[in-house]
Amino acid sequence: MNGNEQLALASALTAKTNQLCIGLEDGVADIFDLVTPTTAELLHGWFGGEAKTTRRLNFHDGQRQAILNTIVAHEVLNARDLKSLYQTAAPDALLSGTRLAEVSEAKHGHPKYCLKMATGTGKTWVLQALLIWQLLNKNAVQAAGVDDTRFTRHFLIVAPGLIVYDRLLDAFCNLSYLPTVL
After folding, report:
1. DSSP letters for the chain
2. How big is the chain by its Cα radius of gyration, in Å?
3. Residue 42 to residues 49, 91, 101, Cα–Cα distance (Å)
4. Among 46-50, 64-68, 122-126, whose mean pLDDT is lowest?
5. Residue 100 and residue 112: Cα distance in Å, rounded?
6. pLDDT confidence band for 175 (50 / 70 / 90)
7. At what angle do helices 123-143 and 162-173 cross, to 10 degrees?
8. What is the pTM of this model?
9. pLDDT at residue 4 above 60?
């Protein structure tokens, strides 16, 4: 399998996300009609042009893409597992080799998202933003008396060592530097 085939899902999801997010900074992107009001408000606050100009710290392009790809995969495409994400974002990639059999395995039967980001590129900010997105949406649907299983208030975060754990703990205890609309 060549590099392009290995990244078929990531490429297709990014292309779909970028298409839905044309005009995001101006508040006119198609994605706003496809997400919850809570998510739309977060997107305006995180990526809206006016909001970005009033802050000293903002998400950079790689962080923005990671957050948006996750929201599109989970909330817009409603991908409940790896196979359904392939089916909605990159169906032709399932025809390559044994990919369909691989993604149909039980171990891929739940939502999981991998965001490849280099050291020092702000993975903690992305993680915090996605936790906030999940938590605020779950609170909103619960307040409305709705059970939307796309969102949760329960998280398991695994850190590869004490240094990373301490960084995450420090970040979660001091969320004030995260650009958000809380």
Report:
1. --HHHHTHHHHHHHHHHHHHTTTGGGT--GGGGTS-HHHHHHHHHHH-HHHHHT-S----HHHHHHHHHHHIIIIIS---SHHHHHHHH-GGGGGSTTHHHHHTSGGG-S--------TTS-HHHHHHHHHHHHHHHHHHHHHTT---TT--S------SSHHHHHHHHHHHH-GGGS----
2. 17
3. 13, 30, 37
4. 122-126
5. 17
6. low
7. 50
8. 0.86
9. no
Mean pLDDT (the chain, rounded):
87
Which sequence spans correspond to the domains of the chain? 3-177
Is the confidence at residue 17, as pLDDT, over 70?
yes
Q: What is the dihedral of CA 18, 45, 32, 141, to 10 degrees?
A: 120
